[in-house]
Amino acid sequence: MSDDSKSQNHNVNMEFLTFTLGSENYGVDILKVREIRGWEKIRELHDTPDYVKGVLDLRGSIVPIIDLRIRFQIENYEYISTTVIIILADGNDGGMMGVVVDSVSDVLAVNQSEIRSTPSLGSKINTDYIHGMVTADDHMVMLVESDKLLDREAFEVISKLEGVA
Fold this sequence. Notes:
This protein has 165 residues and is mostly beta strands. It has 3 helices and 10 strands; from the N terminus they run αβββββαβββββα. The strands form 2 sheets. A 5-stranded mixed beta sheet has the order 8-1-2-10-9, with no helix packed on it. It has a 5-stranded mixed beta sheet with strand order 3-6-7-5-4. The longest helix has 8 residues, at 152-159. 28% of the residues are buried.
């Protein structure tokens, strides 16, 4: 492929790890995914937002764990055999965070031109965490902006716990 044809190619392919929360489908940039772990007991924290379930000691690093069902105000389901923690690179400082999801689905390859903007859903529905939406296999997949999932204040509280887990 020549340099001219590369510069004319506006369709950048991206891959997203898809997962479910309740009956909804979501995706997160596959380049942010560090690992997928089964649900396990974590160290609970007090005086943090309700969506911060606690921290996990991951090979010496303290990783905050966020329950996305609570963060997105989705009906709370039990942790079952398909519940997993997706460990993501946190763009805020190069650290990591884990997100609890109901199940992991697949890897979805998307052309950047296929990603639709998130519609304005009114002031009561927070779309700050949604990068965009894409249709795959006759259903909508909301693409999560993982760097915006953890509030700065919550991250500062958790980061003070290094060595506590």
